[in-house]
Design a protein that fits this description.
357 residues, alpha/beta, 13 helices, 9 strands
């Protein structure tokens, strides 16, 4: 019987190496391939010449900030990281006005395309009756509290010297306090020590994977991650979850907002701009809005005391004859396409017309 020739046995280290390649290397290669394909698809569907995918970039002070010249599936940022397709026009043309709108996601308008957000609709109104080079820059950012807004404004205002600054803020103050408390930071103690404007740097966009992985974004935006980790089940069995009981306004959160607002208004005036305070509009009966909307309304009293023009966007809701829910997304605070147009018209009529003759 012929004998089979047998090659030499591999050394143990080579066996271990080959095993690692199979167990680790292959899955990594697959993940990288999927990531690459995801970026390619996004570039093909939404790519903008001269811009890179991913709205957020790391920032030491803020945790994350909007990247310059970026895009995602429904948004673009310009050369200075504002949610505008058009770059900031520098120097500002003679006879043109420059307006910056600060706030959270209710200013950013994540549920709308870039040009349908209310700051860009306001720009259309402003250009129609002033100068075609007038600009309204959208400095809104998801989950930002007034502390983050001031931090960004300290960078923007000395450089850009806007004519008008719109403050549309207050809805994220309670969440900011809760995040700080979870991190072991007491806002109450900070206020007692004379500090204000503290904010959490650990927002969702602060996660490296969330900023850079198309897989993670897909899983989270589609809800697939929640389904996977819950094995596709929920513990509600189809029951309707009642909205949380309104605990009333948190005096610590309100005091922090008011103090930071004072600093914001002083900063705006120091840089030669006129502040406009817009009370955040919304449907109180949705979710926690009864509580969350109160901070903006209370802050209006601070603004009035400081001689700031205050307008109330809830007047739009009161005047609307149809179903009030038509004006908002499901959150009850993010304006729908219809509502964003009405808000832009409202701000123009009640504030900008008298300030930009």
């Amino acid at each position: 019987m012929a004998q089979t020739t047998k090659g030499p046995d591999l050394p143990l280290w080579k066996k271990v190496l080959f095993s690692l390649i199979l167990v680790v290397g292959f899955p990594v290669a697959v993940i990288l391939a999927i990531e690459g394909a995801g970026y390619a698809i996004l570039h093909f569907k939404h790519g903008v010449p001269g811009k890179s995918y991913g709205l957020w970039t790391y920032d030491e002070e803020l945790g994350a900030i909007h990247a310059s010249n970026a895009y995602n599936s429904n948004s673009q940022t310009n050369n200075l990281g504002f949610r505008n397709k058009e770059d900031v026009i520098e120097p500002k043309p003679p006879g043109a006005y420059r307006v910056i709108a600060y706030g959270g996601s209710t200013t950013f308008c994540y549920n709308l395309e870039t040009d349908r957000a209310w700051p860009l609709r306001l720009q259309e109104n402003l250009r129609a009756r002033t100068n075609p080079k007038s600009q309204v820059l959208n400095a809104g950012a998801i989950m930002w509290s007034i502390g983050q807004e001031v931090a960004r404004a300290k960078r923007d205002l000395p450089r850009l010297k806007p004519d008008i600054v719109i403050i549309y803020s207050g809805i994220n103050e309670q969440a900011n306090e809760e995040l700080l408390r979870a991190e072991g930071i007491s806002l109450e103690r900070a206020l007692a020590e004379g500090k204000h404007g503290l904010f959490s740097k650990h927002l969702d966009q602060g996660r490296w994977l969330k900023r850079n992985s198309t897989i993670v974004r897909f899983l989270e935006y589609t809800g697939a991650a929640d389904w996977f980790f819950s094995a596709g089940h929920t513990d509600t069995h189809g029951a309707t979850v009642p909205p949380p009981v309104d605990p009333g306004i948190n005096p610590v959160v309100a005091e922090n907002f008011d103090r930071t607002l004072r600093e914001f208004i002083e900063l705006i005036r120091k840089n030669g701009a006129k502040p406009v305070y817009v009370i955040v509009g919304g449907l109180p009966e949705v979710g926690r809005n009864t509580q969350l909307l109160r901070y903006s309304r209370q802050g209006a009293e601070v603004a009035r005391q400081m001689g700031v023009l205050v307008i109330d966007s809830n007047d739009i809701i009161a005047a609307y004859k149809g179903n009030k829910h038509d004006l908002f997304s499901d959150s009850g605070v993010h304006w729908s396409d219809l509502g964003a147009g009405l808000l832009a018209d409202f701000i123009d009529e009640k504030a900008l017309r008298s300030m930009t003759p």
